[in-house]
Amino acid sequence: MTDLPRVAHGSEASEHSEAAFAPLSTSEQAPGSDLPPGHARTFASDNYAGVHPEVLDAVVGANAGHQISYGEDEYTERLQEVLGRHFGTPTFAFPVFNGTGANVVSLQSLLPRWGAVVCAETAHINVDENAAPERVGGLKLLTVPTPDGKLTPELIDRQAWGWGDEHRAQPLAVSITQTTEMGTCYTGDEIRAIADHVHERGMKLHLDGARLANAAATLGEGLGAFTRDAGVDAISFGGTKNGLMFGEAVVVFDPELATALPYLRKMDMQLASKMRYISAQLVALYEGDLWLTSARHANAMARRLRAGVEPLDGVRLTQPTQANAVFAVLDRDVAERLRARFRFYDWDEHTGEVRWMCSWDTTEADVDAFVAALAEELAR
């Protein structure tokens, strides 16, 4: 099936040393610069990138011998220890197949059958998951328009009302995305303010962390600092956009939530019999600093891209570049000619806004070639 461009707004507690968060030199290049024909890198999505070689090696390593199925394997056990170092204890991690599954299972664990979720209009759960939260999860989404994809306590209050009214789905959870679908990043203080606000109202806070590593690279903080320590109740913990072949995890910290999750995961068809292959990938990514160096690299390439296109006449940047995404408005004809050379998606076809994404394997040469091509098309 043809992968069509986007045409709608929206898409998609270990301690670390200061050196680990030092800026990545843009002279460092990801492996795989010499690509065969038909395999050129694009700027459409970090999902387009291949599997990081260290992750692929981990899959091969996990393929030796027999392991107990359905999560009783040594790799899934090891994953609990690894994420416990990042987030503190207790931490409970439940590997799943994909991000949509992680979001649905996470939100179901936080809500009763009559519960509703407040989220940004641009949230992945609202725009890009084909009603899975509603149809599979049985959840009502209460959306709020935002200029930058970020919720605030004041914006949440536009939908957080009506408790006790049997005629209205009860707003009992808030879902935020880090980094957001608009490429913006919440600070830890902003997330803490949201968590305090919703907890005072008897609500829970979910964080869609498909690009959580990119946020950590931006903030210069460990993963727990702006999640568990900031009051987040459940995380859709990402990996695919940062070098995994497939797989994410639902991460919670409350033993009571952890009690329900095995049943929800199975019910939602997210229980892998050979779970070791998901867990081994996540261990490879998060046991050392691979997750961080990969995210830092993607972010650095986005900054290079922004710096290259910003001076060009005919390019209007629309959002700050706080992770690995660049948003801009282009003339439609320029965008179409450029897209014939480098694939990327429209973000809002009505305004001409496009999105350019960098990945763990984007190189300086990729960025410079894209900037040069854009300059040529603008000059035509």
From TrEMBL:
Coiled-coil boundaries: none
Keywords, sorted A to Z: Pyridoxal phosphate
Classification via CDD domains: TA_like
One Pfam family, short name: Beta_elim_lyase
Domain Aromatic amino acid beta-eliminating lyase/threonine aldolase: 43-327
Disordered as annotated region, ranges: 1-44
UniProt cofactor(s): pyridoxal 5'-phosphate
InterPro entries linked to this entry: ArAA_b-elim_lyase/Thr_aldolase, PyrdxlP-dep_Trfase, PyrdxlP-dep_Trfase_major, PyrdxlP-dep_Trfase_small
Family of this protein: Belongs to the threonine aldolase family.
Entry-linked PANTHER family: L-THREONINE ALDOLASE-RELATED (PTHR48097), LOW SPECIFICITY L-THREONINE ALDOLASE (PTHR48097:SF5)
Name the record gives this protein: Threonine aldolase
Annotated source species: Tersicoccus solisilvae
Highest classification ranks of the organism: Bacteria, Bacillati, Actinomycetota, Actinomycetes, Micrococcales
